[in-house]
Specification:
2 strands, two-stranded antiparallel ribbon
Length: about 160
């Protein structure tokens, strides 16, 4: 099944998702470097703004993701897609809370401690890892957003486990 949210027959959602994932992972790495080296730039600038970039990128990736989700007809695949979406929403809320606790207005909730934001980053990474696994299951096992190969037999090209 081809993705309805695509550019030149290339699905948009998988093109965008590497950016928020990489930014969130790097935000965690920056926090760990801060803990190791003690340089506030890693925590207050690099981790903070990569976390924000990941949140904005995830919001952008959600739009074509929702379009793709709405096009899924197969019940089994829809169940996987539902969990993929739920975990992504939960992860986004976790990262939003993480970000808020790093701002001037939110830091008083944790007494300026870096422990809770760091733990929220780890939790968010775990959630997007599981969600990514489910996304891979939809694409590589069920063929969501994948067009059939041109050299595939005619009966396989006509099959779609999703529609």
């Amino acid at each position: 099944m081809a993705s309805p949210a695509s550019l030149g027959r290339h699905p948009i959602h998988p093109m965008i998702i590497p950016f928020p994932i990489a930014l969130w992972v790097f935000s965690l790495v920056a926090d760990l470097i801060y803990l190791w080296r003690g340089n506030l730039v890693w925590r207050d600038w690099i981790a903070f703004y990569t976390l924000l970039g990941g949140i904005l990128g995830a919001a952008a990736a959600a739009v074509p993701g929702i379009v793709d989700w709405l096009s899924i007809k197969d019940r089994e695949v829809k169940r996987i897609a539902d969990w993929h979406a739920r975990l992504n929403v939960i992860a986004l809320v976790v990262f939003l809370a993480d970000f808020y606790l790093r701002t001037g207005g939110g830091a008083h909730w944790v007494g300026g401690s870096t422990t809770i934001p760091l733990l929220l980053s780890v939790l968010g990474i775990v959630l997007i890892t599981i969600s990514g696994w489910l996304g891979g299951e939809m694409v590589y096992v069920h063929g969501v957003a994948v067009e059939p190969q041109r050299d595939a037999p005619v009966e396989e090209r006509g099959k779609s486990r999703v529609s």
